[in-house]
Amino acid sequence: MSLQQLLEFLPEVKKPEEKKLGFNTKLKWTLITLVSFFILSNIPLYGLATNSLSRFEFLAVILGTQFGSVISLGIGPIVMASIILQLLVGAKLLDIDMSSHEGKSTFQGLQKLLVIFFCIFEATIYVMMRGLEAAPGYTSILILQLFLGGLLIMFMDEVISKWGFGSGVSLFIAAGVGWQLFVTAFGFLDAQNRVSAVGKVWTFFVSLSAGDTVNAAVALSAILATLLIFFLVVWAQGIKVEVPLSFGSIRGFGMKWPLALFYASNIPVILTAALLANITLFATLLQNWAGWDPSFIIGIVSPQNLIGSIIRGSFTGTLILQSLVYILLMIGGSIMFAVFWVKTAGMEAGNVANQILGSGLQIPGFRRDPRVLESVLSRYIMPLTIMGGATIGILSATADLMGALVGGTGLLLAVMIFYKLYEDIAQQHAYDMYPALRKVMVKQ
User: Which residues, 6+ apart, have CB-to-CB distance to 423 below 8 Å?
Assistant: First the structure.
């Protein structure tokens, strides 16, 4: 059996017959998938003896999972498969033409094949290295549950991408962050399910009334950091370059084609954060399995709460070094994945130029030639890709170091995802209300 035949044999979610789905249909499947995700995240693994990964709540948020549930793998296999394929295609080790339908189909098939492999690999690693330790006689059953849970996440992601709003990867992260943010800010149950002021909002008022200024200041700094990052991300989302265009067949009418600062959206920081999260997890699994101390690696790839350290008086020079390395990793990773994503997702200047010309638009004063339009767009797209990747990396690292609720990277992702989801829903609703808009608007 050839590789192409194997890719065609892989199961997939059926595409909708309609070219454009209605608002209600997309909303229905988005909500069904979201409810299914929450249900699965609350189904515990059968035969689980010890869950040493339960303490990594901030990693669970980034990976869109709940360690100890049937979907403990979360989006990990999907992200790892995407990273490896982007690196191979970007380095030209895989010759795939992403501008053609056949090339995109091959890329998606290879990604699904890699996801299935990583579901098996990560499930085995989690259990054999005692991150999720099986009770005697339940090793194979535990691995099978994790594998099936990984497949369910893969198919739910595919349902969202074909039938819903946005992508499943983004939706699962946003759902996890949103729930964790609410619990962290307003939670009133401790680990033993006893009523207690564990949420940061309640902690601030209780500590302040008790005269505990240190804990009150730490709680307040986390709340203020969360609000600051929220407003910064919303403001940065609105920064864009607008290319003036006109309708070639209708004189006197035109529009502006927006190119956002975050041109590659939130994908670069998702891939970077998930990569660092996987490094932390595998370092911890090595510790459980071989007794090797991974504290040095974990200290570099994990964010440090600088503001909290300063307030508590535990600030050291080592924290500065770790923080600088973490910032450089976030910036470098975000830039790299932003460039790879633009090149592999058909968002380069040539593809956008063909998209614009196909919609009947052109740049005023220039002849209707894709090469001319591509040269103009090239002045903006790649610089915006690099600048946007660096900016989102800086914002994410800064939010983490400020000790924002649920972790800065998770908060940043949630704000961007909900902002993009709002835009998609508003656009879809406008299309349903005014069908003529589809003829003059092209979704990027």
Answer: none
Report the distance separating Cα 63 and Cα 276, nearest Å.
Answer: 11
CA 253 to CA 439: how far, in whole Å?
Answer: 14
Greater confidence, 257 or 444? 257
CATH architecture under which domain 1-164 falls: Orthogonal Bundle (1.10)
Residue 137's CB: how many other CB atoms inside 10 A? 8
- In angstroms, the Cα distances linking 150 to 85, 116, 134, 153, 269 are 19, 8, 18, 5, 22
Please say whether the beta carbons of 222 and 200 come within 8 A: yes
Q: SS3 string of 383-439?
A: HHHHHHHHHHHHHHHHHHHCCCCCCHHHHHHHHHHHHHHHHHHHHHHHHHHCHHHHH
Quick check: do 1-164 and 232-444 share a fold? yes
Q: How confident is the model at residue 441 (pLDDT cuts 50, 70, 90)?
A: very low
Tens digits of residue pLDDT in 348-379: 888 888 877 777 777 776 677 778 888 888 88
Q: Round to whole Å and give the CA distance between 337 and 230.
A: 23
| Predicted pLDDT of residue 159 | 93
Residue 205: CB atoms within 10 Å: 13
How do the domains of the chain map onto residue ranges?
1-164, 232-444
- Residue 163 predicted with pLDDT over 60: yes
| Bridge partner residues of 69 (DSSP) | 44
Q: Give the strand order in the sheet containing 254-260.
A: 254-260, 240-247, 361-362
Question: What fold does the segment set 232-444 form as a domain?
Answer: Preprotein translocase SecY subunit (1.10.3370)
Q: What span, in angstroms and rounded, lies between the C-alpha atoms of 80 and 285?
A: 17
Residue-wise pLDDT tens digits, 308-324: 888 888 878 788 888 88
Q: Name the one residue in this structure whose structure tokens are 């903006």.
A: 380
